[in-house]
Design a protein that fits this description.
Blueprint (H helix, E strand, L loop, with lengths): L1 E3 L2 H15 L6 E6 L6 H12 L12 E6 L2 E7 L6 H6 L2 H6 L11 E6 L2 H5 L14 E8 L4 E9 L1
Length: 158
């Protein structure tokens, strides 16, 4: 478990994690878990900074927000207010997950970051090891906090 006591440390952690990921061609699928206010959105914001995108915020009201930076793109989902698997379709979740590759067949530098990712299993579509995740480098980050953030993370598929 990694303890992060300040936003600066969270920012450094995001940089240390995201920068090497830019060298992998496979798109990234990041499952973000933790209670409200635990650092999930702050982490997405810091990763967006690494990619050269700015103004990342919680997509709670929009449910999905795209941040495009000079080094990559984040599709940021907040599943907290969704009620069923049908809602995933209505917010374009499956379109984005299934169309992750460019027309040339090459992957973009793409990060799909999902807050409240445990909802996917509640909806019966599977989680980190589901078949639909196989085209991604899959990561899970679990946060708790503040005033001190704790983050644990693991790569499930390279």
């Amino acid at each position: 478990m990694l303890e992060l006591k300040t936003l600066a440390q969270l920012s450094n952690f995001a940089l240390e994690w995201a920068a090497p990921e830019l060298f992998f061609e496979k798109p990234k699928l990041i499952f973000l878990k933790g209670p409200m206010g635990s650092g999930k959105t702050a982490f997405v914001s810091k990763v967006a900074d690494v990619l050269g995108a700015s103004d990342a915020a919680s997509p709670s009201f929009a449910l999905h927000t795209r941040y495009e930076g000079i080094r990559g793109t984040i599709d940021h989902f907040d599943l907290d207010r969704l009620e069923s698997a049908d809602d995933l379709e209505s917010i374009g979740f499956w379109d984005i997950v299934n169309d992750i590759f460019l027309e040339s067949g090459e992957p973009e530098r793409r990060f799909v970051m999902i807050e409240w990712a445990s909802r996917l299993e509640q909806f019966g579509v599977g989680g980190e090891t589901a078949d639909w995740t196989k085209k991604f480098r899959v990561w899970t980050f679990e946060f708790s906090g503040p005033p001190e953030w704790r983050a644990s993370y693991k790569s499930l598929r390279s």
